[in-house]
Design brief:
The structure is a single chain. This protein is α+β, with helices and mostly antiparallel strands and 187 residues long. Helix content is 17%, strand content 34%. The protein has helices at 2-28, 38-41; strands at residues 50-53, 69-75, 81-91, 97-102, 117-123, 129-130, 137-140, 146-149, 156-163, 177-186. The relative contact order is 0.26.
């Protein structure tokens, strides 16, 4: 009887060991990739981020007085749909900036059915950071999540810059401005 109990115990332990090894193999093998641990699969779900950037010599070159707006259609989107994750601005002058995003070339329109407002981000002079010797100011929205879709289907980011500062003019002869937008394309 003693041998039968020892034999059954050995069979039971061998079964548990084999079962554990098989479960580990299934979890870590390519046979069932959805069974990977999160840490092993993390690299496959990394989002792809793209950047679209204005050109200081081509875009936003008008001298803007207080509350004046300049519209630009920045080409180069990889998809007509996406999520805007960050907006950055570089400027020669430390001013209050409003960055407006639109879904079409028509931007703002008196007819609400045609107006294509998507979202806005406001930068204040307090946010403008200057690095010694760089002679420019840097603004960063930080992480954000704004759904964007180019309804024209032209792979453009429709952007407007508004000068909200009560004193100075920008761009043209008075200064330069670059708008840099990070986004994740979606289907």
């Amino acid at each position: 009887m003693k041998d039968l109990g020892t034999t059954l115990k050995f069979i039971k332990e061998a079964f548990y060991y084999t079962w554990d090894r098989l479960a580990h193999f299934i979890r870590t093998s390519e046979l069932f990739p959805w069974a990977y641990d999160q840490a092993q699969d993390a690299e496959k779900v990394m989002p792809v981020r793209w950047t679209i950037r204005s050109d200081k010599d081509v875009n936003f070159t008008l001298a803007l007085i207080t509350n004046a707006k300049e519209d630009e259609n920045l080409t180069g989107l990889s998809s007509n749909k996406g999520v805007i994750r960050r907006i950055k601005v570089q400027s020669d002058q430390n001013l209050d900036w409003d960055i407006f995003l639109w879904k079409t070339d028509t931007t703002d329109d008196v007819d609400l059915d045609i107006d294509s407002f998507c979202g806005r981000y406001k930068f204040s002079v307090i946010q403008g950071e200057q690095i010694a010797g760089a002679n420019q100011y840097y603004y960063d929205s930080g992480p954000m999540e704004l759904e964007y879709e180019d309804l024209d289907g032209t792979f453009e980011l429709h952007v407007s810059v508004v000068n909200r500062n009560a004193v100075a003019k920008i761009a043209g002869a008075a200064g330069e401005l670059i708008v840099d937008v990070e986004y994740e394309p979606s289907a």
